[in-house]
Design goal:
The complex is a heterodimer of chains A (214) and B (94). Chain A has 214 residues and is α/β, with parallel strands linked by helices. Chain A folds into 2 domains: 33 residues, no CATH class; 144 residues, Nitrile hydratase alpha /Thiocyanate hydrolase gamma (Nitrile Hydratase, Chain A, Alpha-Beta Complex). Helices cover 43% and strands 14% of the residues of chain A. In chain A, the strands form 3 sheets. In chain A, strands 1-2 form a two-stranded antiparallel sheet. A two-stranded parallel sheet of chain A has the order 3-6. Chain A has a two-stranded parallel ribbon with strand order 4-5. In chain A, helix 3 packs across helix 4. The longest helix of chain A is centred in the first third of the chain and has 15 residues. In chain A, 32% of the residues are buried. Helix content of chain B is 9%, strand content 36%. Chain B has a single domain, classed as Roll (SH3 type barrels). Chain B has 94 residues and is mainly beta. Classes of the chains: A alpha/beta (214), B mainly beta (94). At the A-B interface, helix 9 and strand 5 of A face strand 2 and strand 4 of B. Strand 5 of chain A pairs parallel with strand 4 of chain B.
């Protein structure tokens, strides 16, 4: 079979290489094992195929919008912020957001400290509030380099941190997840909670950038 | 179980390389840092990974390492730090 094709017969007709399907890559041992364990659990009635589908859908549906809502409330409500710093999961629950059972800890950016999160061992990430991690977060390049040269890595993200500000890298190795409470940008005093939530971007909650006024 | 170390204590990470599911990153083994915070007690992940119960639970600490102590050529800022969650069985007094 040819690896390219032609479609259309008018002046727009062109050819391009066949894009590989997901199954075209080699199956790794772990992929085979995952499939097998999934099939066995369904066969033994531990959960149904529908349960598995619903769980995948639920995980895929999480997004940084939830994290942004919690951050905006923390910016606006000092008492909420205290509770949020104390227990992120419980604070999210107050807003009707299910942050799951794995404890999430907030680290606050100030004019003296800039926090950034990583999982050097794998890809631990506060999925329940930020959604699925970006590919670069899971990549070895980010995981190995952000602890070695955090300022250099932040610069690659377009983020310049002043030399008199302490950089604090948090390595999620264990039973906790982290999220950054970014600094509220100047000039946003008149903005409401919904508007503020909308400007809190995912990467600012990982700490590779800051929140900017729109 | 009571925590063996308190916030502010200087600790040393054991320089050991056992096989298995280890949650202590290589780059801090043999390095010294300061207890930042006590995160609580958690089942031992080195046991959980093999289907065991992971009890007794271990105290988990947040240990702060100065970047300049981790990397001899670090030139980013004297107070820059990496904070790593480490289980008590990996720590000894510094």
């Amino acid at each position: 079979m040819s690896d390219s094709h032609i479609h259309g017969d008018d002046k727009w007709s062109h050819s391009h290489p066949k894009q590989p399907d997901i199954e075209d890559g080699p199956l790794t041992d772990y992929m085979v094992m995952t499939e097998a364990v999934g099939d066995l659990l369904i066969e033994k009635g531990v959960f149904s195929a529908g349960d598995l589908r619903a769980m995948i859908e639920s995980i895929d549906t999480k997004s940084p919008t939830d994290g942004g809502r919690v951050i905006a409330r923390a910016w606006l409500d000092q008492e909420f912020k205290v509770r949020f710093m104390e227990d992120v999961n419980a604070a999210a629950e107050e807003l009707g957001i299910d942050a799951g059972t794995i404890p999430i800890r907030a680290v606050e950016n100030t004019s003296e400290v800039h926090n950034v999160i990583v999982c050097t061992l794998c890809s631990c990430y506060p999925r329940m509030l930020l959604g699925l991690p970006p590919d670069w977060y899971k990549a070895r390049a980010y995981r190995s380099r952000v602890v070695r040269d955090p300022r250099g890595v932040l610069r690659e993200f377009g983020t310049e941190i002043s030399s008199d500000v302490e950089i604090r890298v948090h390595d999620s190795t264990a039973d906790l997840r982290y999220m950054v409470l970014p600094m509220r940008p100047d000039g946003t005093e008149g903005m409401g909670e919904g508007e503020l939530a909308a400007i809190v971007n995912r990467d600012s909650m990982i700490g590779v950038t800051t929140v900017r006024k729109p | 179980m009571t925590a063996r170390y308190a916030v502010g204590d200087r600790v040393h990470v054991r320089e050991a390389y056992p096989p298995g599911h280890i949650r202590t990153p290589y780059f801090i083994r043999g390095k010294s840092g300061v207890i930042n915070d006590i995160a609580g007690e958690f089942a031992n992940p080195e046991e959980l990974a093999y289907g065991r119960v992971g009890l007794p639970k271990l105290t988990l600490y947040h240990v702060s390492f100065r970047q300049t102590d981790l990397w001899s050529d670090y030139n980013g800022g004297a107070s820059d730090a990496t904070v790593v969650a480490i289980y008590e069985n990996w720590l000894e007094p510094a």
